[in-house]
Amino acid sequence: MNPVRLGQSDLHVTPICLGTMTFGEQVGQESAHAILDRAVERGVNFIDTAEMYSVPAREATYGATEKILGSWFRSRPGMRSRVVLATKVAGPSRGMPWVRAGKGMTAADIVASCEGSLRRLNTDVIDLYQIHWPERSVPAFGSLYYDPSQERSQTSILEQLQALDRLVREGKVRHIGLSNETPYGVHEFVRLAEQHGLARVATVQNVYCLISRALENGLDESLHRLGVSLLAYSPLGFGLLTGKYDAGGTSGTGAPADARIARFESVRNQRWGRPEALAAARRYNQLARDHGLTPTRMALAFCYTKWQVASTLIGVTSLAQLEENLDAWGTRLSPELLAQIDQVRWEMRDPAN
User: Fold this and answer.
1) Can you say how many angstroms the Cα of residue 221 is from the centroid of all Cα atoms in its chain?
2) 53 catalytic, yes or no?
3) Is the pLDDT of residue 62 over 60?
4) Neighbour tally for 2: CB within 10 Å
5) How far apart are CA 54 and CA 65, in angstroms?
6) Measured between alpha carbons, how far is 284 from 272 in angstroms, rounded to an integer?
7) pLDDT tens per residue across span 248-274
8) Residue 213: its pLDDT value, please?
9) DSSP string of 32-51?
10) Within 10 A of 277 (CB to CB), how many other CB atoms are there?
11) Residue 204, SS3?
12) Which Pfam family is one of this chain's hits (predicted)?
């Protein structure tokens, strides 16, 4: 895996990033350390986390994932300098008062969250600090439409950017990024950075997978023209694109008892739990089998080879899953298969957007 440059920054990362949101909920510290060790041994140099992790978010596990990473760095002298570390400041509260009391995301909130992450991660600097979701009211996490009447923004983009720039100038953060963002948001962050001489966003971390490709309807052009890199998350559609849910009936998930979508009602009620998402995933999974591929390998290869994607986030709960996801690197999908994938999208669109 040849390193790729993120945006206009000096960060060079592997095109596969280890996502860690399961650490602290489904994955204990010892297993998490083993997964991290093996990922680095296999050549991965990019790790992503967030202050609100683990997932599903709850007060008892707030910050747990960052603490596990911090303990890993503490027990592995010299490891911190070998990896590019990304984390995120949570956006306005989505039913998580333990993250912050207010409903917005002020400049003071951003600074306080960053300092909390630095402590939990046992590090002096965060390589890539991202806003987890916009402070504005935008369609995200499965909602489809922008509704101006729902706008409750309390902090301007300029004020957010100034807070992030302060963290960069103080040496606490090297570069900044966004997540779950819209074309407008990306353009505005870049415009204001260039107008005021502030830190420029290097990345946008958005969902991108076979059953959620809305990014290709405009955001990809914005990222390309503005020189901002895409970090694609949920390439396996929260597990739907692995085939492990294919055995159930059309009205059920058919998920193994230990799968997140089976264990946590909050997950089932989101975009990944829609019957349409499962139906589309099953179409893609069968298409993979018809071409002699596992569903996991085809879904990952789709993201690994798309021009839009700089680095793909993989989230695993075991060493076996890690190996499978990394082994998919280098897989090429034939023009015939890609055409068939596009045909399924034409028929079923993007049911997990």
Assistant:
1) 19
2) yes
3) yes
4) 6
5) 6
6) 15
7) 644 355 555 555 665 555 555 579 999
8) 98
9) HHHHHHHHHHTT--EEE--T
10) 25
11) strand
12) Aldo_ket_red
